Amino acid sequence: MDAVSPRITHVSWGRMEVAGLGQGKDFKLWPGGGRDWDWNETGTRHSPGIQPADVQELLEHGSKVVVLSRGMKLRLGTAEETLQALKDADVQVHVEETTAAVELYNRLAEDGEPVGGLFHSTC
Q: Of 24, 72, 80, 83, which has the fewest beta carbons less than 10 angstroms from its beta carbon?
């Protein structure tokens, strides 16, 4: 059986809960698991936003669909290079406000899609 992407069970300002992973502020999730998303690892900032290195781990774990959150107030951008890297990898990408991103991610995961995502729970 293929690995299932973990369900996000709660999201509110500054706090998320993920089944099997516990709670945190920001998460990287993929089929079969995930972890806290530490922006300092790749130098991510609100602008230009999500870096190609941020999504690499999602691809390495088999994500064929990727959901990127923009934050609760849509302040988090996505670098053009990131979108191009996902396109080059033939990965379907969705960029949404965080609560909409969580709903979409959970629906795709429930449908058995090999979905990964980056989720930012504040601005």
A: 80
pTM of the model: 0.96
User: How many structural domains does the chain have?
Assistant: 1
User: What does the pLDDT look like over 12-67, one tens digit per residue?
Assistant: 999 999 999 999 999 999 999 999 999 999 999 999 999 999 999 999 999 999 99
**Cα–Cα distance for residue pair 115/63, rounded to 1 Å:** 5
Asked whether residue 40 is assigned to any structural domain, the reply reads: yes
Helix axes 52-60, 80-88, angle to 10 degrees: 30
- What is the C-alpha to C-alpha distance for residues 100 and 49, in angstroms, rounded to an integer? 18
